[in-house]
Design goal:
The structure is a homodimer.
Chain A lengths: L1 E5 L3 H13 L3 E5 L2 H8 L6 E5 L7 H10 L6 E5 L4 H9 L4 E4 L4 H17 L4 E4 L2 E4 L4 E4 L2 E4 L2 H12 L5 E2 H9 L7 H17 L4 E6 L3 E6 L3
Parallel strand pairs in A: 1-2, 1-3, 3-4, 4-5
Antiparallel strand pairs in A: 6-7, 7-8, 8-9, 10-12, 11-12
Helix pairs in contact in A: 2-3, 6-7, 6-8
Chain A binds a DNA duplex through helix 6 and helix 8.
Chain lengths: 225, 225
DNA sequence: GCGCAAGCTGAAATCTGTCTGAAATCCGCC
DNA sequence: GGCGGATTTCAGACAGATTTCAGCTTGCGC
């Protein structure tokens, strides 16, 4: 687990680092807003512990800018007092949880764990190939920034192909797995869906293409290879 | 706080679920050993309430296997009689506390809290996602200045979705958790509430949207991402 | 190069879940 | 009993998914 700590009060920052240390978490310490933001923007952390009051650029603003930059790393905000307005302001700007100082290290750890868990350490199952990511639960296909939603059949077809890239999958088999044994689906049905998929791959500007093997079936390959 | 309940006696299981409900704990109910074990193995719970006698795979064995799998979620074992041998056996296999039936709900809650506390878990009073704040005690949903009050069912549905944003929650599961196992609620009920919620999200002018995965369920996401 | 079989793809038709407004019903509360 | 909000029911509108079809392109053997 990688944790970024942004806390100006040196003593507290050290203590936090210590706590992380004991959990064998990899922690980076930063002591002001701009540094914190810069580190956080790398997007490499699992959780960010962010003080609300910071010199230079305050915590609320850091949170806001992170969200604006589409960095979705969970943020645990530390607020000095339990002023309701502070809490709300933090959550408002994109923090995911908050804690008022002082706090027990147990609680800190519990909240960090909770955030990490929520984030999707719960395995978001995906299949991927050459920069193409197929999310098995949302049925979304993404590449870089772009993302498209796949219909059920599109999804099933692609799933079969992406599971074994470069291996030719007979149309027969696709029909069997997607339409089921007793369907009357014909080859053309598969062709239609392959066509749909190719269009979406193109839209995603992916290198991956679906190749045809005449009289047999299809397989995935990286373009140009 | 997430609690897993493994109890074969349906009536008692429901009662436990009810108690958890009142505390605003997220509880999953399972009615036999194998299911309980499978759920518990996900490691997503803060406490497991486990009946000692279960069909299929008994509670002691479930506890043992959990510990063997290095799942350290605290276990509160329920034993039918106050047979000393049972208690000892339970604690032996990795249970952390036990209680004899019948018991007062007060005591159950106290013990659950104690176990959770030991674990370092904390009761959060709000859930938030992308600037959306769901207040668990007032059932209010706010974003920026605006705020709306949610009905009970609306609240429950949203709570499930916001607990794990971006994770698809099957309608089936929503029905189970909000309406209960033996309800005759249909898919359309969920759809209606989702519709209500979308309207309120829109009113709040939130970035968060409830997305549909056809034939499966729903998930929360930030618009435009 | 020819011709045919196989494959591609756009458009139309159809089908199937989903959405949503409105009415009906329930329920706690005065 | 009546009121008001919450919940359920229902049906038509809607949207997206799937199928069908026809015309066109491509690949391959001859």
């Amino acid at each position: 687990m990688r944790v970024l700590i942004v806390e100006d009060e040196a003593r507290l920052a050290e203590a936090l680092g210590q706590i992380m240390e004991e959990q064998r978490y990899l922690a980076d310490l930063t002591y002001n807003g701009p540094d914190g933001l810069a580190y956080a923007l790398t997007g490499q952390y699992d959780v960010i512990v962010l003080d609300g009051m910071l010199p230079g650029l305050d915590g609320l603003e850091v949170a806001r800018q992170l969200r604006e930059a589409h960095i979705s790393t969970p943020i645990l905000m530390l607020t000095a007092r339990d002023e309701v307005s502070d809490k709300v302001a933090g959550l408002d700007r994109g923090a995911d949880d908050y804690m008022t100082k002082p706090f027990a290290s147990e609680e800190l750890l519990a909240r960090i764990r909770a955030l990490a868990r929520r984030q999707g350490e719960v395995q978001t199952e995906v299949l991927s190939y050459a920069g193409l990511i197929l999310n098995l639960s949302t049925r979304c296909l993404q590449r870089g920034e772009r993302e498209v939603r796949l219909g059920f059949k599109e999804f099933e077809v692609l799933r079969i192909l992406i599971a074994y890239p470069k291996m030719v999958v007979p149309k027969e088999e696709i029909i069997l797995k997607v339409w089921g044994a007793e369907s009357f689906a014909e080859d053309n049905n598969v062709e239609v869906y392959v066509s749909f998929l190719r269009k979406k791959l193109q839209f995603l500007d992916s290198q991956v293409t679906i190749r045809t093997v005449r009289k047999v079936g299809y397989y995935l390959e990286v373009e140009g290879a």
